[in-house]
Design brief:
about 210 residues; alpha+beta; Glutaredoxin; 8 helices; globular
Length: about 210
C-alpha cells in the first residue's frame, strides 16, 4: 500500500549521498582491526569493500541516453528516499546509480535514511515481511508516494532465489550476485527506474 512520508518531515533531514559516503568512510576508519571480535571484523571488512564498490561505480558510471532523457523530462519536484545501511552489499551496488540518476535533474532531491535507526520508517516498506535494503521511494511535494524500487533489480533477485532454491550457501550466491552486478553495470536499474517513472506518468509527453 502506498505510504506518505513521515509528518514530522524526518525524511527531509536525511543524508545526501556525499554525506553518506563521508559517514561511511569515517566509520570504517574508527575500527581498530586488532581489537575486533570476529563479527566486528566481518562488518569492518564488508564496509571497506562497499566503499571500494561505490568508488568504482562513481568513477566509471555514465548514465545512458534513455535514463538521462527520462530524468531530465521530470517537471515536478520529487523526493527520493533511500533506506539503507553501509554494510549492505546490495546498497553499495545500487545506491551510486540512484544518486547519479537523481543528480540529472534538480527537481529530484535524494535523501538517505538508515534502516536500523529508523525502524518505523523501514517497517512501511517491507519486502515479503523482511527489512530488506536498499529501498528507494519517490514522493511528491505533498508526501504522496509516486513509486518505489528495491531491494535489488528483478534479475538479480531471481538469480539469488534460484541459487538458494538449489541449495547453495550464502557465500556462493553472494559471489555470483556481485559478479552479476559487475557485468550488468547499472543497466537493469536504469531500465527499472525508467519503467517506474513512465508507469507513474511523471513526465510530460511531447506532441
Amino acid at each position: 500500500m502506498a505510504q506518505k512520508f513521515m509528518p514530522d518531515r524526518r525524511v527531509h533531514e536525511g543524508m545526501t549521498y556525499k554525506q553518506y559516503l563521508e559517514r561511511t568512510k569515517e566509520e570504517s576508519e574508527q575500527f581498530n582491526p586488532d581489537k575486533l571480535s570476529s563479527e566486528e571484523k566481518d562488518r569492518y571488512n564488508t564496509i571497506r569493500l562497499n566503499i571500494q564498490r561505490m568508488s568504482r561505480i562513481d568513477k566509471s558510471y555514465e548514465p545512458g541516453i534513455d535514463i538521462t532523457d527520462t530524468a531530465e523530462k521530470i517537471e515536478d519536484n520529487q523526493l527520493w528516499m533511500v533506506i539503507t545501511e553501509n554494510w549492505c552489499g546490495d546498497s553499495a551496488q545500487n545506491l551510486p546509480y540512484i544518486a547519479r540518476i537523481a543528480s540529472l535533474n534538480n527537481k529530484i532531491e535524494l535523501k538517505i535514511v538508515l534502516r536500523d535507526s529508523n525502524p518505523d520508517i523501514m517497517d512501511n516498506y517491507l519486502t515479503n515481511g523482511t527489512r530488506s535494503i536498499p529501498i528507494m521511494v519517490s514522493f511528491n511535494d505533498q508526501g504522496d508516494e509516486l513509486f518505489r524500487w528495491g531491494p535489488r533489480p528483478k534479475a538479480a533477485q531471481e538469480l539469488v532465489s534460484k541459487l538458494k532454491a538449489e541449495g547453495f550457501d550464502k557465500k556462493y550466491f553472494l559471489e555470483k550476485l556481485h559478479s552479476w552486478y559487475a557485468k550488468n553495470r547499472g543497466f537493469d536499474i536504469e531500465t527499472e527506474i525508467i519503467n517506474l517513472i513512465n508507469k507513474a506518468n511523471l513526465i510530460k509527453k511531447t506532441i
